[in-house]
Write a sequence for this structure.
């Protein structure tokens, strides 16, 4: 296990322990230290005010962090909107806009994860919290299964795709990985602990540092009589799922250029084809190959590129994630900068 | 055959509906309509008694109460149900029976008495179940009356009667402007297109098709009897509806008392061209499995039968026809690696149009299902990527020679990269009329029809059976449209432009006569 992994496990254990203690002490018979100031209640006898503004009265730093997250942008994200707006579908909105404006906002908001049946869900309960709203401990909050309700799901039965096959499979990718074996879940990377609370900025594709350390790239040119061969390999590093994960049209693109101008790319993605159903009754589009980088513990990706006419011994390489194919983005009116996430780049020379 | 402009088609388009092509003829203008114009404050047209003597001679007796029904029988136990058909009938009840309700309706429409126009168009719709113009005109009048619900009901009925004509008109007619933004409008038209695309001759259900009898006994929904005074029999039946002194208007346009002029836009309708229809008896499951296994063995890749037909037995061994496909990626994988097959069909991932990973190879085959399956030589069906719909695979005596033919109609499709709705493009329609031995009698290939077409580059075709020369024997008519402009166009369910054909011009018509000597269709 990496030092990072050990740290994360320790944090998880700490959080769990805190939660257990909190559960044990929570209850009206136990006197807890009161806060210096009494917060304005956000709950009445009938309902909780689930708006982020109400939450911010006590959890301003958390709400501020959330406002910059992809969860907050789940509905406003221009890539999503470019796909949604021409043909709005309820199935998209279930995860991209569960708030639905009912809390005064759109996207995935506080209430999406933290409010059920008129109660605020938390990993621990405080007396101060109970004074302003009903609360209960939800052990599943932050679990991989809870995250999976939106990050692992099958295709709709649209007559095109195999409805038994996942459209997003982040949990499947995580299962069997080193992270899963080490007890690391989604929140350990995407909601790291910040003092007593977990971070709610939910770093993902927009976080350069997180993306940059997700994989390790190895590029090795070899001079041959015919030209230049380049062995490339990419292995997962600090990541608990495939790279890239998520929507099926995401791809990682490795570009290798020789110093004399030749260029080749490799697309790391799920590849779909229409094939016959197992029962032979029909055909559907399904994944027939997966060239993405698997998470640590489940292998790595490698390939070989030949530049037969190359005279140079040097190559430059770059790795980026494209949230949409550039041609599709162009068709949607999205600038390529909107959909491209740089990951790493480097230079390599052939060695004798 | 050089392209020619079909004058009849042009004229027919002008005849259509809410524009003034439905105006009364001069004879009709002498009817109470003239009287009604003089009395704009009147809610109902004048009775015959109040009309001028001239009008009295020529005009139908508008507003004359119908003769009392003969033996009207007990009132139906019902009729609190509020189905669309009920609403339409109830609206029709507001109009007094007349010889030509449509003409009366036009009079009211002209005077902007939309409620009355609705009632009389409803009367015409209920009484005359043939032409689509009555319900379409009702939809227009309802839209003008801001009666959104009745506009929907009427348009549904019009689409039931003749969707290809109505879809185009509904999207353009100015009178329908107020309902084109209604939530139901586009889905309704889409349903009509879907119905047409699914199978020849299919259409939306008619709101008038059945009445839900909400009686005390919970009977099965039934069509009310004419004796109940509820409705007229479908067009073509002899019995006039009880309570009316004139028979229902026949499908043919009414004969005007004065010979029509060009301005009247009253023209002779061309012979009705219809796609052939027939019966499909699919293979039983065991037969299907046997055939599929044989096809899989032949191609070395798993075959999927999209549609099958068991021909009426003429010999000991059953004969079957089937449209089937197999994945070309699966075929490639027989000898190649995943990477090789990816590169072969996908090409540059940035070039979506080169993505053939989703494509199949489509075929049509004749098979004899004896003790073992004997496959004929499969015929390639050209598709842009894969089979979209098998519109038809049935047995019918198209040429009326006493022997069955096999009609095959396949529309292909191509899917774009996204997984969202609307990512499918239908193209490449293939029609075959085959003899029972599998040889071809008629082929129609509508190639890749571009949505954005360029002048002179693209054509589309459609076909139908018509008695062109009136000899009582079916002829085949093939229409070809050449796109002379450059525009973005919308297609109906059979890849024909979904608007009035004369707008794009350049429609050529070819008629094929059946030759019994050669059992073939030959150009006229």
């Amino acid at each position: 296990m990496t030092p990072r992994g050990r740290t994360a496990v320790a944090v998880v254990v700490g959080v769990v322990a805190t939660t257990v203690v909190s559960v044990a002490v929570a209850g009206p018979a136990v006197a807890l230290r009161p806060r210096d100031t009494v917060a304005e209640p956000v709950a009445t006898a009938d309902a909780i005010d689930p708006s982020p503004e109400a939450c911010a009265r006590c959890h301003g730093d958390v709400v501020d962090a959330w406002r910059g997250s992809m969860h907050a942008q789940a509905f406003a994200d221009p890539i999503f909107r470019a796909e949604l707006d021409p043909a709005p579908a309820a199935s998209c909105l279930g995860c991209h806009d569960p708030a639905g404006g009912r809390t005064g906002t759109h996207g995935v908001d506080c209430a999406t994860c933290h409010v059920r049946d008129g109660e605020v869900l938390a990993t621990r309960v405080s007396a101060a919290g109970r004074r302003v709203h009903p609360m209960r401990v939800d052990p599943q909050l932050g679990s991989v299964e809870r995250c999976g309700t939106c990050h692992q799901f099958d295709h709709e039965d649209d007559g095109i795709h195999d409805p038994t096959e996942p459209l997003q499979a982040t949990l499947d990718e995580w299962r069997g990985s080193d992270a899963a074996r080490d007890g690391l879940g989604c929140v350990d990377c995407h909601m790291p602990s910040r003092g007593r609370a977990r971070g709610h900025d939910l770093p993902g594709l927009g976080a350069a540092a997180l993306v940059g350390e997700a994989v390790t790239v190895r590029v090795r040119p070899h001079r041959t009589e015919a030209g230049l061969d380049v062995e490339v390999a990419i292995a997962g590093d600090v990541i608990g799922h495939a790279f890239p994960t998520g929507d099926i049209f995401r791809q990682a693109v490795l570009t290798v250029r020789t110093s004399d101008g030749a260029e080749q790319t490799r697309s790391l993605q799920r590849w779909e084809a229409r094939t016959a159903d197992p029962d032979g009754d029909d055909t559907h589009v399904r994944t027939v190959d997966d060239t993405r980088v698997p998470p640590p513990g489940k292998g790595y990706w490698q390939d070989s590129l030949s530049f037969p006419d190359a005279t140079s011994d040097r190559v430059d390489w770059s790795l980026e994630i494209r949230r949409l194919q550039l041609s599709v983005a162009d068709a949607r009116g999205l600038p390529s900068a909107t959909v491209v996430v740089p990951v790493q780049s480097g230079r390599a020379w052939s060695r004798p | 055959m050089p392209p020619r402009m079909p004058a009849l088609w042009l004229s027919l388009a002008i005849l259509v509906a809410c524009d003034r092509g439905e105006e009364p003829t001069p004879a009709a203008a002498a009817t109470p309509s003239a009287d009604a114009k003089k009395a704009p404050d009147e809610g109902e047209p004048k009775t015959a008694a109040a009309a001028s003597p001239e009008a009295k001679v020529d005009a139908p007796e508008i507003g004359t109460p119908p003769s009392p029904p003969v033996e009207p029988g007990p009132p139906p136990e019902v009729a609190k149900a509020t189905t669309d058909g009920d609403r339409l009938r109830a609206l029709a009840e507001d109009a007094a029976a007349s010889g030509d309700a449509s003409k009366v309706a036009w009079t009211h429409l002209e005077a902007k008495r939309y409620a009355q126009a609705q009632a009389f168009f409803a009367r015409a719709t209920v009484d005359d179940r043939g032409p689509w113009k009555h319900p379409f005109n009702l939809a227009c009048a309802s839209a003008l009356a801001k009666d959104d619900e009745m506009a929907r009901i009427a348009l549904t009925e019009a689409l039931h009667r003749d969707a290809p004509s109505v879809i185009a008109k509904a999207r353009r007619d100015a009178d329908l402007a107020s309902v084109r933004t209604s939530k139901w409008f586009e889905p309704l038209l889409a349903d009509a297109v879907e119905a047409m695309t699914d199978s020849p001759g299919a259409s939306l259900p008619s709101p008038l098709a059945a009445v839900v009898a909400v009686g005390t006994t919970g009977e099965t929904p039934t069509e009310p009897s004419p004796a109940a005074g509820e409705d007229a029999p479908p067009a073509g039946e002899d019995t006039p509806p009880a309570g009316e002194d004139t028979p229902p208007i026949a499908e043919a346009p009414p004969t005007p008392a004065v010979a029509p002029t060009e301005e009247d836009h009253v023209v002779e309708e061309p012979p009705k061209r219809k796609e052939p229809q027939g019966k499909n008896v699919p293979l039983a499951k065991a037969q299907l499995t046997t055939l599929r296994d044989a096809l899989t063995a032949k191609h070395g890749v798993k075959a999927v039968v999209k549609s099958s037909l068991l021909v009426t037995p003429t010999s000991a061994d059953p004969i079957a026809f089937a449209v089937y496909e197999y994945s070309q990626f699966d075929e490639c994988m027989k000898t190649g690696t995943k990477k090789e097959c990816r590169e072969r069909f996908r090409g540059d991932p940035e070039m979506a149009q080169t993505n053939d990973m989703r494509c199949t190879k489509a075929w049509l085959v004749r098979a004899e299902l004896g003790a073992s399956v004997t496959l004929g030589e499969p015929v390639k069906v050209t598709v842009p990527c894969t089979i979209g719909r098998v519109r038809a695979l049935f047995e019918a005596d198209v040429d009326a020679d006493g022997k069955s033919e096999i009609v095959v109609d396949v529309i292909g499709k191509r899917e774009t990269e996204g997984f969202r709705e609307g990512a499918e493009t239908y193209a490449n329609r293939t029609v075959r009329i085959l003899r029972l031995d599998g040889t071809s009698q008629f082929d129609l290939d509508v190639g890749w029809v571009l949505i954005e077409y360029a002048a002179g580059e693209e054509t589309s075709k459609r076909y139908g059976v018509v008695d062109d020369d009136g000899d009582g024997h079916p002829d085949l008519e093939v229409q070809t449209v050449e796109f002379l402009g450059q525009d973005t166009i919308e297609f109906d369910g059979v890849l024909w432009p979904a608007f009035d054909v004369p707008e794009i011009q350049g429609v050529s018509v070819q008629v094929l006569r059946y030759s019994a000597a050669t059992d073939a269709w030959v150009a006229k």
About this structure: Chain B touches chain A at residues 292, 296, 301-304, 325-327, 329-330, 338-339, 341-342, 345-346, 349-352, 357-360, 386, 415, 417-424 (CB under 8 Å). Chain B is about 30% helix and 20% strand. The radius of gyration of chain B is 27 Å.
